[in-house]
Here is the input.
Amino acid sequence: MSRYPESVDVAIVGSGPTGAAYARILSEQVPRARVAMFEVGPTVSDPPGAHVKNIEDAEARAAAQRRSEGPGAGEATVDNPGAVKSGERRARPGTFLLSDGYRVDDEDGLPVAAFSSNVGGMAAHWTGACPRPGGSERIAFLPDMDELLDEADRLLGVTTDAFDAAPFTALVRERLAAVVDDGREPAAQVQRMPLAVRRREDGRLVWSGADVVLGDVTRGNPNFSLHDESLVTRVLVEDGRAAGVSVRDLRTGDVHEVRARFVVVAADALRTPQVLWASGIRPEALGRMLNDQTQVVYAARLRDVGPAAAAQVAASGALSEQSGVSWVPFTDEVPFHGQIMQLDASPVPLADDDPVIPGSIVGLGLFCAKDLQWEDRVEFTDQPDPYGMPAMRLRYTLTDRDRAVLERAREEIVRLAKAVGEPLGDRPFTMPLGASLHYQGTTRMGEVDDGRSVCGPDCEVWDVSGLFVAGNGVIPTATACNPTLTSVALAVRGARTIARKLSFV
Ligand code: FAD
Here is the structure.
């Protein structure tokens, strides 16, 4: 007996926040629609898709991370982006890297391109930063972008006040604002980072994962089902229309066909094109315009926060698992997205008699937007990957402009570090390519079908009606800001389109 339904209205491939956004909107707008979600990884948290940081027991949390690491489980990971400095290729906990195919010959490649395979996808492990895109990051041909972003905020449970009581956050913003804000619109000024997190009444933080996006309405929907350990190997296409999916039950090895009127592939920016490729759906733009955000990091120690301030911090008991996160928005003139996080420990060794005042170490990160190139792409080979899917090969090079922007980012981060305090370490560190975990462009959206995009403004694949794509791969612009809020917003647009079509059938 198969554990899968024979047919549904909508089959969703992947259970990260973008797949979950489809399930949520469909549950709200067309509750009678039968929706099945397929996820290759196991369920590692409760409710399914919850952030592993919400698991209080450290051992149970580490086990959940390992179970998310697919074929990379058991390999050494690094928790702190600063630790990547060792030059070794290591994944972050909860993620795994490609064992090969991450770089070709003389190209730059994406050596630390990473994946998560678990219910909830990468959002069971993410930082939850949800800034809005600005300037050229925005998709100019979508008139309803702001309303969609509002809806994405609702689905992800985005807040800005969870760290208001954390020490020195206002001071950090004040010092950054003094060197950044001049001449900027209010929306582009230094501010609190919008984060997908809430503080419970007892003070504990609850980080949003795909569980929050699904919400009670989806969990309580009798017409919704979630199938973990289920690899979708192919989308079925009949007469130019999506007709269902072929699923391998990883518990038994059996393969099943599930018929569907609509199929949504939300399998991350590198595996969504893989599923389409494996299905024989190979538009020219598939996998192309791959882009990631190069990243520089640095740290500083807040200036002029002496013992009196430390005593105040101790008295308020305000320090939490992680202190404040501030945002220096991207602009076209200063093309970096700044994520400034106060840390509880210094990333570089300090003298023994020099204790750290909690919240006084500031980690600075600047993300840069990539110069988009048609030749940057994920291609697929005849060799099987560890799941038996066509193995990937990443073709990726930085342009001269990318290198110039990176150099400018290194100068800017030193300026910001000096504005908040005393820089720690001699110079900023440039992260290995792929470290941002924000791969985009591979199933890009276009306003018209001119051969340069995979899907239209409703996320429906140009060549296959009823087939929708979701995730960061859909974003057609080069963003520097964290992309998940934007890709959830785009998923809302696609889900509403399916809901509308289902209401008429
Ligand atoms: P994913 O969350 O990757 O989910 C895709 C799912 O599809 C996976 O669970 C995968 O197992 C499944 N899948 C793949 N192939 C198949 C198949 N063939 N069959 C069935 N299932 C399949 N983003 C931000 O915007 N802000 C941040 O602060 C941020 N911080 C991050 C920090 C960390 C440590 C990590 C790991 C990520 C971070 N990200 C951040 C990235 C963010 O998590 C992703 O952008 C987001 O999860 C993408 O959502 P998604 O639904 O498109 O894909």
The longest helix spans residues 400-420.
